[in-house]
Amino acid sequence: PEGAGTGQGSRRGVTVLAGTWSLPPTVIWTFLVSLCPSAGTGILSSQPEENPHWWNANMVFIPYCSSDVWSGASSKSEKNEYAFMGALIIQEVIKELVGKGLSTAKVLLLAGSSAGGTGVLLNVDRVAEQLEEMGYQGIQVRGLADSGWFLDNKQYRRTDCIDTITCAPTEAIRRGIRYWNGVVPERCKLQFKEGEEWNCFFGYKIYPTLRCPVFVVQWLFDEAQLTVDNVHLTGQPVQEGQWLYIQNLGRELRNTLKDVTASFAPACLSHEIITRNHWTDIQVKGTSLPRALHCWDRSLHESNRNGKAPLKGCPIHLIDSCPWPHCNPSCPTIRDQFTGQEMNVIQFLMHMGFDVQKMAQQQGLEPSKLLGMLSSGN
């Protein structure tokens, strides 16, 4: 690819997979490939203020135009009107980058958001194996999966599967994997019966089979997850059943991350973060995401060098414990979709129709104390 961005003197590479989880399989978009990091934001930014630890890495952005969660290996044919070749696109990009400096790299970070985050989980080991087979065993391949750790949970309200929005998560993947001729890692595939490879699209099921280190970034109340679960927060007061469902989703998500070595999971209602320019502002237990990633990078470097445990004062397992959406005061700003005005967490909860009195009772607190805690973010 022409115009590959380079950080002078850097022997680290960041390859970012774009993604939109709910893109219907019949919609094919084409993009101009932009590989210049100076135009990026978040982890793709070349500004140290916005991207303090990766600003000078060599960066490549791969647009998402295969609509197959980066898993497809299906070419266009008389029977199949569309090509779904996400897995093959990654292989070809890696081949081309080897001739553009990747061969001298020490670290390759494969990062992705949304469907791209799931794509990281599906492809990180394959990229490592590809480089090993090409004779580049010295390159350490790592993964950064943002907003791609979905749950195969029961929907709040079941609907007929007529598109990717109404389909339950498992059914959408079951259908898609056949349509795309989806490829999953062999180590994960062997954990399930033939025909049940769809399980490998769900982070908590594929993660234990991965060989490469992966850092998982996931909002506890992910908007894409709520959408496929048929919880639509449209500004109308939510019903008690929805509220309990949302709280339970946070608990379920938190439980699936407890054995993930490196994770960052804020209790926010949002989707995607690593390519947002506000990614430095979000904190969990006083640590920002860029700081946590830097700690992870250092811990991997130290463990490779002398087998030491993670560094003291440099946390890499950061999961919010507060139980409601946006109970973390550093969460991205919420705006009233009708007025456009910013809302704080108390205004947001009241706007959604939550009963603060009842919430306080559930937590064994006085309403005034609960409101004070919410205001301070405790």
UniProtKB/TrEMBL annotation:
It comes from the Eukaryota. Pfam families: PAE. One of its GO terms (molecular function) is palmitoleyl hydrolase activity. InterPro entries: PAE/NOTUM (IPR004963). GO terms for biological process: negative regulation of canonical Wnt signaling pathway. Belongs to the pectinacetylesterase family. Notum subfamily. This is Notum, palmitoleoyl-protein carboxylesterase. The gene is NOTUM.
